[in-house]
Amino acid sequence: MTRVMTHKRYDTLAAAKGPATNGKDASRTNLEEVFGQNTFSLAEMQARLPKPIYKALMRTLDQGSELEPQIADAVAVAMKEWALEKGATHYTHWFQPLTGLTAEKHDSFLAPNGDGTAIAEFGGRELVQGEPDASSFPSGGLRATFEARGYTAWDATSPAFIIESKNGAHLSIPTAFASWTGETLDQKTPLLRSIHVLQEQAMRALKLFGTPAKRVRATLGPEQEYFLIDEQFFYARPDLVATGRTLFGAKPPRGQELEDHYFGSIPDRILEYMNEAELELYKLGVPVKTRHNEVAPSQFELAPIYEEANIAADHQQLTMTTLRRVARKYGLVCLLHEKPFAGINGSGKHLNWSFGTEGANLLEPGNDPHENMQFLFFCSAVLKAVDRHQDLLRVSVAHAGNDHRLGANEAPPAIISVFLGDQLSDIFEQIEKAGRAKTSKQGGLMGLGVKTLPALPKHAGDRNRTSPFAFTGNKFEFRALGSGQSISFSATVLNTIVAEAIDEMVTKLEKETAKGAGIEDALRKLLADEVHNFKRIIFNGDGYTEEWVKEAEKRGLLNMRATMDALPSLVQKKNVALFEKYGVLSRRELESRHEIALDQYFKTVNIEGETAAELASTMILPAATRYLSDLLTLAERAKGVGVKTEGPLATAKAVGALVDELSDKLAGLVKQNAALGGDDVHSKAEHMFHDIVPGMLAVRSAVDKLEKLVPDDYWPMPKYREMLFVK
Ligand code: ADP
Ligand code: MG
């Protein structure tokens, strides 16, 4: 009986060597030729559209003016021609419902001609508006099922693109998605609104400062962490398949000699994978820039060059999709869960955020930031915003998967604070104490003590990896996002809260100057006041320590440890007022988002709880009892023949005790799973948080101890050391 297990287990291992190569030579890519080749770019439009049409379109893109129907018709014709030339047979409106993923429904370009033949049909109407059945997308009570209608609307500001597969291609058109009553059901719409709001307020400020600018755009650069494991392991782990993370798994021993036990690593396969994934992204115009190994074994990171927020958000979704898709070609699975493996680092996403005019980054401090009043103004606005709306930033990263990371000494704590670095902190201190700053600490040069090596310019501020929100040179880096989540809502929050802070500060300045004050003086006074109010949010120390938790409490900063602590913020009075004031989200839309988030939390943990119980019952417990039975049989047989049985019996006792513990905890979990927690989504989610999460942990603890005792060849699932080290 056990021999069958043995072979299955080792077969999986052997197979996990995987194909070493996909037979492609992506390294010979001509980057310039390939980049953006599958996007309907501005250049492509300019070449294909009549001049006046192109000009009118540019007005929409640049100034946000309304899109006229004739223009949509003309663009549709050009887009269709281009797509057909590229071999596309279908088109789809591509949107981002509140599942956090993307959605698409393909339509063929073909339409009957009336004479039995077919023609390619795609006009302005098809381009501008779609009507997917919305009933299967989360709406959080916004829409009764009989009102299943939902609309997608063309987002002309993000280029359409072609997705290729082995024997076909289709045109994807970025769209917004709303219910038939006009409430947004997606990630894109509020992001677009917030981009507009930030621009409006920042332009007001620039006008006051006399800085010429045509427009202001938020910019985003998301760094994406991910794991790659062999798909043989993936399929042998039903927990990974069902939930995206391992629900069991003992921490592997530190010793890396295990790598030698098996087949060692094949980094070429990973590199080839990266090359192909990046090639696909280049074709889509995603400017992937850096890649490297991450802290945990089998963990990697990829980062693009930053782009305007809306496009960056679309590209981020494409990046996640592409990383997943291409992995399969190499016999790999890309895990984007925040915490696929307990006990080693999880994966996050750092959202680099800034805003700038057509020519300048408005968060660029320059060499002497103490004299750069415009920079100090915008930087203060960010600090003021983060201080006031810690809860919103926190809730923008709240979901079940991220609960395993935030505050767990690998990711930033759940307390939101800002790292500013020495130089800027010093400047704000000067402003607070003396009403103005007279100097900027300078980094200077760092001699390496070797004459032939160059002296390196030293940064004025060191890095800090423990801060959730860090100023990194000329942008802020929000580091609390989970690896699998959409960046849109975090960006929406940032844009909106900073717009509000700018709005308030500009209004004050306008009042002062109207009274006859000089702008410089008014600004100095304003900054001194503001610093006083927001200074508690600045923290340059180690965010992982217990002292910080205490200190933060003293400062009155929020510490919302878990998703369920953070979610109520979505519908809190202050936040509803904020989003309504700037027209980014209505109360109803926020309420719907709140309900969707609760529902997703409930569903995620519910599936995990059920999966954990099932695997423990049908895989782990049987393996452990089988071993126990073998030990007892051995002891029984040994009796008559004078073989000592103390050893096997001691092991049997240990295994027996754990089997007992597991059975007990499992019974508890099964009961809690059955209870479900009532009828409404709120109480269900609470039940998941208070009963299922701890119930799963208790089961896991027994299982992981058993993994260390039960023979390797009885164990029914690949272990951490295999999944993480066999490549
Ligand atoms: P760091 O070394 O501080 O992580 P990098 O230069 O590697 O900085 O940038 C990290 C990410 O930040 C990249 O995706 C980059 O494009 C992005 N980034 C840089 N400048 C900006 C900006 N002004 N706005 C938004 N993102 C930016
Ligand atoms: Mg970074």
Which ions, cofactors or small ligands are bound in this entry?
adenosine-5'-diphosphate, magnesium ion
Strand content: 5-15%
What distance lies between the first and last C-alpha atoms, to the nearest angstrom?
30 Å
Helix- and strand-based class? alpha+beta
Mean pLDDT: 89
Low-pLDDT segments: 1-5, 255-266
Task: Report on the architecture of this protein.
By secondary structure, this protein is α+β, with helices and mostly antiparallel strands. The chain is built from 24 helices and 19 strands. The strands form four sheets. Strands 9, 10, 11, 12, 13, 14, 15, 18 and 19 form a nine-stranded mixed β-sheet that branches. The two termini are 30 Å apart. The site of adenosine-5'-diphosphate has 15 residues, from strand 9, strand 11 and strand 14.
